[in-house]
Amino acid sequence: MKRRFAVILCLVLVSMVSVTGFAFAEDPPATDPATPPATGTDTDPAAVVPPAVEEPKPVKILQITSAPSELNVGDEGQLQWQIVNGEDGDVVYFESSNQGVALVDGSGKVAAVGPGTVEITAISGDMRNSVLIKVRDIEATSISIEIREITKKKDQSEFEIKVGDVLHLSAVIAPEGSKVGSVTWEISDTEVATLDNSGEFIATKKGTTEVTVTADSLTETITFVIGESGIALATILKWVIGGVVGIAAIIIIIVLAVKNNKMKKAAKKRASDKKKQQERLRREIQAESEKLTPVVGPETKIYGTAVGAGKPENVDGDVEEEPFTLDDLE
Questions:
Q1: How far apart are CA 98 and CA 183, in angstroms?
Q2: Measuring CA to CA, which residue among 159, 150, 156 is closest to residue 234?
């Protein structure tokens, strides 16, 4: 009975294993987590090694680290730049969007040449970076009146002149190179003096007047005290100097004319004397040639009388005439 019960229990257990798929198995062997799992089949047990993956190169970035935002005309500024993750051989050059406003060289130095706004671009390969720079005219800070005929002392604002004096005024803007709008002139009393837009001042009557020059928000005023009618020392000196120069010029012209006339007369006289001498010599030669007497005979020579020549004697004591040649006439 017990044996039959054991057989039945075994059959029941076998039926349960087949229905549930339950099976006993050994635990799998332990593996190293750092070791990649092997792949393959029973026929190809060799492990397959995956290809190496290259790390991406760092991205280059062109940066302008420092640049002036504003410049005055005539000023210069320097751009500072760098290439992040740069390499040896990287080259940077620069461009200006308007060379009438600013110029830039290969080192990034900017020269302001005219008012306006300009874009300066740094370029390296495919990388670009830009900055905007505003260029403005030099700001005027002061204006003063300059008088051509008077040496103005420092901080002098009052001048004594005479009726009839003519002065030429001009406006001086500082600093040099700065620009302003239109310049206007004003005079406080037009009955004692006149002043036009060019700055010409004429004192017409005894009195006091002020002259004011204005440009934008800048202004300066000076005072003229006009005395009794008379000729100013400066005017007298001007007349004297002008007269002396004029007289000297006239004297020089006269001297040159006289000298030139004398030279012409001397040349004419030399030409006349030379012509007379040539004519006199021609007449002398002609007269002497008419005095020649040819002597012809057997075993004789042609003789003649030379001008101023002596007559030598022959062996018999007679006077023998010398042979005459044309050389004796010279």
A1: 31
A2: 150
pLDDT bracket for residue 290 (50, 70, 90): confident
Residue 114's closest CA among 124, 125, 101, 104?
101
**pLDDT tens readout for residues 58-109:** 888 999 999 999 999 989 999 999 999 888 889 999 999 999 999 999 999 9
**170 band by pLDDT with thresholds 50, 70 and 90:** very high
Count CA atoms within 13 Å of residue 213 on its CB side. 25
Rounded Cα gap, residues 194 and 253, in angstroms: 41
Q: Please state whether the predicted TM-score (pTM) of the whole model is above 0.85.
A: no
Decide if 195 contacts 211 (C-beta within 8 A): yes
Instruction: Count CB-CB contacts under 10 A for residue 265.
Output: 10
